[in-house]
Amino acid sequence: MYIQDAWYAAALSGEVKREPFARSILNEKVVMYRTSTEQVVALEDRCAHRQVPLSRGRLVGDELQCWYHGLRYDCSGACVSIPSQNTIPINARVRAFPVVEKHGLIWLWPGDPAKADEASIPNHWVCAAPELAGKMSYCTIDCNYLFGIDNILDISHAAFVHQKTLGSLDIVETPPEILIGENEVRVRRYMRREKTPPLYTRILQMEYIDRSQEVLYWPIGNTRVETRAHACGDEDGKVYHVYTTTIFTPATDTTSHVFVGMHRDFDVDNHMFTEFTAKEVFNTVMEDKDVAESLQANWDPKAPMIDIQLDRPAYAARRILERMGAIAAIRATV
Amino acid sequence: MYIQDAWYAAALSGEVKREPFARSILNEKVVMYRTSTEQVVALEDRCAHRQVPLSRGRLVGDELQCWYHGLRYDCSGACVSIPSQNTIPINARVRAFPVVEKHGLIWLWPGDPAKADEASIPNHWVCAAPELAGKMSYCTIDCNYLFGIDNILDISHAAFVHQKTLGSLDIVETPPEILIGENEVRVRRYMRREKTPPLYTRILQMEYIDRSQEVLYWPIGNTRVETRAHACGDEDGKVYHVYTTTIFTPATDTTSHVFVGMHRDFDVDNHMFTEFTAKEVFNTVMEDKDVAESLQANWDPKAPMIDIQLDRPAYAARRILERMGAIAAIRATV
Amino acid sequence: MYIQDAWYAAALSGEVKREPFARSILNEKVVMYRTSTEQVVALEDRCAHRQVPLSRGRLVGDELQCWYHGLRYDCSGACVSIPSQNTIPINARVRAFPVVEKHGLIWLWPGDPAKADEASIPNHWVCAAPELAGKMSYCTIDCNYLFGIDNILDISHAAFVHQKTLGSLDIVETPPEILIGENEVRVRRYMRREKTPPLYTRILQMEYIDRSQEVLYWPIGNTRVETRAHACGDEDGKVYHVYTTTIFTPATDTTSHVFVGMHRDFDVDNHMFTEFTAKEVFNTVMEDKDVAESLQANWDPKAPMIDIQLDRPAYAARRILERMGAIAAIRATV
């Protein structure tokens, strides 16, 4: 029961080149490639003839040629050549998915192409803002995408899962302000004289900081954590902005694609620093991957569960998805 | 819904020795061994007592002794000894399968032994002809055996899958003559001044050849490709015969045994050349294995499919199997 | 249909320390640890909040803290701390299992705690007797625990499976005396002038021995083989006692925990000899593991089976389990 009529992050811009690239999106096998004019094409990854994955084929000009019998498909998914015959059956085609490249990501629309409106592409301006420096990475996590969203929306886990990276007990002890919109959830905290978390120590080089943090979620799987930090008490001094983007796309029911990046508005020309922060934030995602996969492996839908106060943002997100029809009715106790 | 009353290639002669040898045939676990007089025996690979695989046991004379409690079975599958007691239960036996060794292969009959007629063993004379040189190999392919037969009967895939070995665009461009018999399918092509495919270049050492090729299929999983080649235009000159045998036996519904060999009528005493051609043809089978396993892994029985003209021989083969009751009714568009 | 109200060996004493230790018992995920006073605690290995395995968490004093959001549980399974809030939901708890440490083993009661009577813990005095020397080991076997019990109760398999270790054809040829009690099965053999089995040769250093052997089984998965050996004919001379303990605990339906040890009443201060015998008996268990896993992998519940005379003790054990409600009705022919 995935929402089909929505844009999903399918790949980093840099992942799709002039050769076939395979990825499962919402249980669909998809092959992507770039045309000679750098346009991204996304087709069903299954030849209309005998189901061989087209991603094992090769590009001939802007057409994708099947590895097995050489059938060629154009960018619309229509079969345009069958080597051994002159006629082409009317139904010789594979599905073509609307795709748009924006903010350094390839966005794919699995649903009705007529409804694909580019204006509704999730706004990840942070990932492409000229005034910011940062870098996106990709990984998979073997869990349902909802567990990924839960993870970001209850940032208090940082105190335990990310002890060595983002860990800060102050986060757990600071009650959040929760803003629930029609189509988004925001979780705000303001921490004064916080012991700087290990990762931020390495980035900001201050032992204690004042920090405000806002976690933003919007459908289907978009999240951004915005951090504003400054030297303790120095409210008029330099403010450091750090944006952590994490986007979840369902691959299958128990595996997810994760696109993650950290962007900042200071020291923006320092490329080594950009590489360093990208690596650090990727390491924290590896910690999340560990806990999320361990949760998925242990998951028993019949086991009783309790809710805690900090689950409220995650439930707010699920209620948005429930209204969209993406998940079944929620019973929450907080 | 496999045809039980038929002969299936179960092993190469050289694979079965004076020790138990396990192989699954049509989802049945079978153990084979040779008696002291070199006769091949094939029994159910599951002790009648506690189901331990007999293939983990050992031969005592011509009897197979179970690894666990030492029960011994004779060549008819009857239990003839239980170490700890003098009486033997009447139903203490495992199934014995009719087996015949012919043309360098062990043929097994999974069905009613009373119907096993040696005269109906598929005629792979090529594999044992004294005037030919060649060698058989064995491999498994993780796909249904029907995909293997499809592969051989549409040899046009050579232009794409076997670009570096058998590849020849001429094959795709030469319309085949298709001869459909009651119990066989033949696909013939005659190519003049063909750019010699890489594998044949290495064998025949000519850049261009005139070549006729006939692909022969007969049930259940027997195929042979007969090639006659000669120097371009030199129809009265030396003719080179090359026979490529490929036999498919279902192991399970998604795995198959493949017996493959290349035999020739020239340079027959050159053993190094025999080894070389055996290795080359095995390499092409590895290319087929790659495409067939990729197809099987991608297979969705509900996905729509189109047919192409070159599928006609494969459909003819499937109609033979359909008439035999081996597969369900076929709906083909070519 | 496992018996819940019973004591099961869950771990060797030495396996459970001041850190979480995970093990599945009767399809339940369990985490064990020791308190600061060395008491063993066993809890459900699934946080009541979001199902993350508690075994991935850490001890804070005698409380177990979840890895994800820091919830803490006391030894009774009650959640006693949720870092981000002051109240704790009434149902915030995980199951706690009665556990008792006895005879060098941790015994766990998966059923109703009110019925857990320490007096009913299986009496493995051999494993803790001061006058004996020996050592327990642990391994898993990928088979149902019943196949493990079968294996011990038909010791005749030693002649085939353990040819290189315990193997003795005399065992097969010596008819056993079978004593079937309400709640135990005993299988006795007395062998005069037996060719000393390889393992015993290494232990006793005699080529031939007189030996009595009694195999004892009692529910759920307890077995002990008691061997009395002396020099041939020397009935008044020195008697060597060797006890081989093997305890099976279901992990899942097709995997079992096995606790195994060999204890003796001679040369008891020789620690190297103790290590040596522990290693030897572990090697024989590896042989049993091989045959039992091979049986489980080959197992087809619909395949016909015969019984042999030596199956009587195993059926007697199964009848005890049948009366307890642990297994379905048995149809045996011996």
TrEMBL record, chains A, B, C:
Keyword Ligase set for record: no
> What InterPro entries does its record include?
Cholesterol_7-desaturase (IPR050584), Rieske_2Fe-2S (IPR017941), Rieske_2Fe-2S_sf (IPR036922), VanA_C_cat (IPR044043)
**Pfam families from the xrefs?**
Rieske, VanA_C
Alphabetic keyword roster = 2Fe-2S, Iron, Iron-sulfur, Metal-binding, Oxidoreductase
Q: Which residues form the Rieske domain?
A: 7-108
A GO term, aspect molecular function:
metal ion binding
Q: Which domain of life is it from?
A: Bacteria
Name under which the protein is recorded: (2Fe-2S)-binding protein
Write down the species.
Answer: Pseudoduganella armeniaca
